[in-house]
Write a structure and sequence with these properties.
The complex is a heterodimer of chains A (88) and B (615). Chain A is built from three helices and two strands; from the N terminus they run H-H-E-E-H. Chain A is mainly alpha-helical and 88 residues long. Chain A has a two-stranded antiparallel ribbon with strand order 1-2. In chain A, a hairpin with a 2-residue loop joins strand 1 and strand 2. Chain A is elongated and about 55 Å long. The two termini of chain A are 14 Å apart. Chain B is mainly alpha-helical and 615 residues long. Chain B has a two-stranded antiparallel sheet. In chain B, 58% of the residues are buried. The chains are: A mainly alpha (88), B mainly alpha (615).
Chain lengths: 88, 615
């Protein structure tokens, strides 16, 4: 693979930063935003749980795990597209 | 690189699945043998001894087999730990005695509000993965202060980083050794002070000879034991209460029953009520504290050096990212189970303890009351029988009301096997799990502190020409010295110990996180800006802690001092930003260095050649 040109490096970092902001948005939503509404969500029942409680005890945690695996594969795809992934 | 050394060899890495598979099977067989021995009449005391000594013996054996005299092996396990196993090691590095024993109890006592810990201690891994771990792995040296030194022009930044690292980690490691002492003294029947030093010996054999390599492979072994020990009792409990052994799904049913029982029992603050005070009234301050705590724990997660340094050990940047995801999955397994412990225990209390004749209480109330973890305080003289009843005056009507019942946070996980009517061998299993959790976290923290002192202070700042052999000897001596000091502090049973652990997160978050993140994501960050920011964040957080805790300063906006990072983190970001703009932009060499760590492939272009590590 050829040396990364400045333009390509800039494009690569743009894509990487974009993914970073997307992930920060997911993080912020499941860490804070959804729990702002806990008192309202608690009026809804979900498999026996009040939904507000469920989101803090399980829902957000599942979202965290899934989004991290998604992030790892997404960033890897960007690395490969720009030819900057490490050799196996 | 020599690959034929004992356990670091290629064949060991290739056979990890087989080795840990056999290990897990062996552990299961060991538990079954103990169960049979118990049925044959072997005493509980001996079962407890066998559990503690066999598991610690195995950790020690791994520690001895992983001994090494190579720098790369000692500091970063040779950078060949696969993502999956590094995830397990991070899981046990992360989950401490507090997570294993006390968290479920906190959830029992504080209901919804306690979930701030569950969220805060998991979501931080998103910040680790997206902002820091891959770039620190690419940077590819030994410690977190190494990065601060290379990025911010040398020893001033490095030294400030070391100060923050030690402040955050020392209280934390002391609490782990304290936890080891409690578990060992309860299950071995020896005094707490002796148990602390027995635990210390267990920690040292795991880490001293092999450094990071030994700690890594012991932590994987400890994760397997702690997760088995955590899941089994509550699975059986769930099967007993609901008929299905999947507690994480089934505790919703138990929760419905609790919510139905609460009004009749006179519970004013429901288990699921969000942001409510003791009277059950929703208010702004409780909500603010809930979110402030989540923020501080998450940002703190992404700044604690014993966690960040685990991602220095993966073979590649790609593996570092994958490894964070695996870490969170392994941590998630315990954290999404913890609320079910709390709910099943609460249902038992509401159904079978409250409202019962004081003479007809279940056996576990009596046995855990005897060691001061439960109190049934009906009569005025109940304190004579239950230490927890001190200061509680019951109405002596012979029936236990809710206001007459006391339970310590530590009792929930420990007593669950007995509540579920399980044999003693399961209680021993839980003790082995708690011990594994405390030992593994203590190992990681001690290594982080000792490495900062030996690598960053001694080698980088005092004697840069020290020979490899000498550096390794210094590392080991410092490891022992730090371990003994923290064991001594733990043996004095300091009263603020639990508060100090929670403070560690805010301190790390305020002191280290902004400098690390801005160093990677904002090229304009200057040396002076970063140092000023670290000092400002650390200073604000510490000032708020000390003034509110010891000098009676009123709280700002009602924010508890455990969340002092709410003020420290923004202070650090703002000061770093402003001072950076007031000082000269980093040189071209530094910009090239930052560019080189942002890309997974290629060499790291250090701005100062002296920063290169020598093996």
């Amino acid at each position: 693979m050829s040396e990364l040109t400045p333009e390509k490096a800039k494009a690569y970092w743009g894509r990487t930063s974009g993914l970073m902001w997307t992930m920060l948005g997911i993080w912020f939503f499941f860490s804070f935003v959804v729990h702002f509404f806990a008192p309202q969500l608690n009026k809804i029942s979900f498999i026996g749980f009040p939904l507000g409680f469920y989101m803090a005890a399980q829902g957000s945690l599942i979202a965290f795990v899934v989004s991290l695996f998604w992030f790892a594969s997404k960033q890897n795809a960007i690395d490969e597209e720009f030819g900057v992934a490490e050799d196996e | 690189m020599a690959n034929n050394t004992q356990t670091g060899g290629k064949s060991f890495i290739d056979n990890l699945g087989k080795i840990y598979g056999i290990y897990t099977g062996g552990f299961a067989a060991f538990v079954i043998v103990l169960a049979i021995l118990e049925q044959m009449g072997v005493s509980n005391q001996i079962i407890g001894y066998l559990f503690v000594f066999m598991t610690v013996g195995v950790y020690a054996l791994i520690g001895v087999l992983s001994r090494t005299a190579e720098m790369g092996e000692y500091y970063v396990a040779g950078r060949k730990v696969p993502a999956f196993y590094n995830g397990m090691a991070t899981g046990s590095d992360w989950m401490s005695a507090a997570s294993f024993i006390a968290m479920a109890g906190t959830l029992y006592l504080s209901g919804y509000d306690g979930l701030a810990f569950v969220l805060g201690w998991t979501g931080g891994y998103l910040l680790v993965s997206i902002l820091l771990a891959p770039y620190l792995r690419k940077f590819g040296q030994y410690t977190v202060p190494d990065f601060l030194g290379a990025r911010y022009g040398g020893n001033v930044a490095r030294f400030v980083g070391v100060i923050v690292l030690i402040s955050a980690s020392f209280a934390y490691v002391t609490a782990q050794i304290f936890g080891v002492g409690i578990i060992a003294s309860r299950f071995l029947g020896i005094s707490f002070e002796v148990a602390v030093f027995v635990g210390l010996a267990g920690i040292l054999v795991c880490s001293m000879l092999g450094g990071m390599r030994a700690v890594t492979w012991t932590q994987v072994a400890q994760y397997i034991i702690l997760i088995i020990a955590y899941l089994i009792p509550v699975m059986i409990m769930s099967a007993k209460v609901t008929g299905v052994p999947i507690p994480q799904l089934m505790y919703g049913q138990a929760l419905e029953k609790i919510l139905a029982l609460e009004p009749a029992l006179g519970v004013v603050k429901s288990h699921t009520a969000a942001f409510a005070d003791a009277k059950g009234v929703m208010n702004f301050t409780d909500g603010l504290n809930f979110f402030a705590l989540i923020l501080c724990l998450m940002v703190g997660t992404a700044a604690l050096p014993h966690i960040l340094m685990r991602y220095f050990t993966t073979p590649s940047v790609r593996d570092a990212r994958k490894s964070v995801a695996w870490s969170l999955l392994f941590i998630f397994l315990l954290y999404f189970t913890a609320p079910s412990y709390a709910v099943f225990a609460k249902l038992e209390v509401y159904q079978n303890v409250i409202g019962q004749q004081i003479t007809a209480l279940p056996g576990w109330v009596q046995s855990w009351g005897a060691i001061g973890l439960v109190g049934a305080c009906d009569a005025a003289n109940a304190a004579a029988q239950y230490a927890l009843c001190k200061g509680v005056t019951g109405n002596a009507d012979g029936i236990l009301q809710l206001s007459e019942f006391r339970i310590s946070a530590d009792a929930i996980v420990l007593a669950t096997p007995e509540i579920a009517g399980l044999p003693y061998v399961i209680a021993g299993l839980v003790a082995a799990g708690g011990l594994a959790a405390a030992l593994s976290t203590a190992d990681g923290l001690l290594l982080a502190i000792a490495n900062a002192l030996s690598h960053d202070v001694y080698y980088r700042m005092i004697d840069p020409h020290a020979a490899t052999k000498r550096r390794l000897i210094i590392s080991r001596v410092l490891l022992i010295v730090v371990a003994i000091i923290s064991a001594y502090v733990a043996s004095t049973k300091p009263s603020h110990i639990l508060a100090m652990v929670a403070w560690a997160f805010s301190i790390a978050a305020s002191g280290l996180f902004p400098a690390l993140v801005m160093g990677i994501w904002w090229k304009r960050t200057s040396n002076a800006g970063a140092v000023a920011g670290m000092i400002a964040g650390y200073g604000v957080c510490l000032y708020y802690l000390i003034m509110t805790q010891f000098y009676g300063m009123p709280l700002w906006f009602g924010v508890k001092n455990i969340s002092c990072g709410l003020f420290g983190i923004p202070a650090a970001f703002i000061v770093t930003y402003v001072v950076s703009l007031m000082t000269a932009a980093p040189a071209k060499e530094m910009q090239d260095f930052i560019d080189s760590i942002r890309v997974p492939k290629g060499d790291v272009k250090l701005a100062n050649a002296d920063d290169a590590i020598s093996h």
